[in-house]
Amino acid sequence: MLISLLDNIGCPCPDIPSRDLTTPPSRECRQINSTFRYSCVDGYVRKAGTSNRVKCEKHSFDTDTWIRLMLLHCLFKE
Questions:
Q1: Measured on CA atoms in the order 21, 14, 31, 7, is the torsion positive or negative?
Q2: 1-51 tens-digit pLDDT
Q3: Which of 4, 6, 11, 2 is nearest to 64 (CA)?
Q4: What Å distances lie between residue 36 and 26, 42, 57, 76, CA to CA?
Q5: d(CA 39, CA 53)
Q6: d(C-alpha 15, C-alpha 64), whole Å
Q7: DSSP tag of 24
Q8: What was the pLDDT predicted at 3?
Q9: What's the CATH architecture for 2-76?
Q10: For residue 5, what pLDDT is reported?
């Protein structure tokens, strides 16, 4: 348990969640307030009006999470 708590101090954000039809995010240490942009897989594009950006925010003493600003939708590129 102590090792787990120490990991959270150095890398407080959890792994970025995978999303359908996007390139898998790299597994690396991220800090509070850091952002990440998803990329649609080849042959798909981001739907206009949706965001590919997520941000890690602190919500309580033991909970950090990635917040989606607007839900990303990848559409088949015609």
A1: negative
A2: 334 444 456 888 888 888 999 999 988 999 999 999 999 999 999 999 999
A3: 11
A4: 10, 19, 12, 22
A5: 10
A6: 10
A7: P
A8: 42
A9: Single Sheet (2.20)
A10: 43
Count the neighbouring beta carbons within 10 Å of the beta carbon of residue 37.
Answer: 12
Q: Where are the domains of the chain?
A: 2-76
In this prediction the pTM is 0.77
| CA–CA distances in Å: residue 20 to residues 3, 8, 46, 55, 76 | 32, 27, 12, 18, 12
pLDDT of residue 62: 62
**Tokens at 59, concatenated:** 């919500």
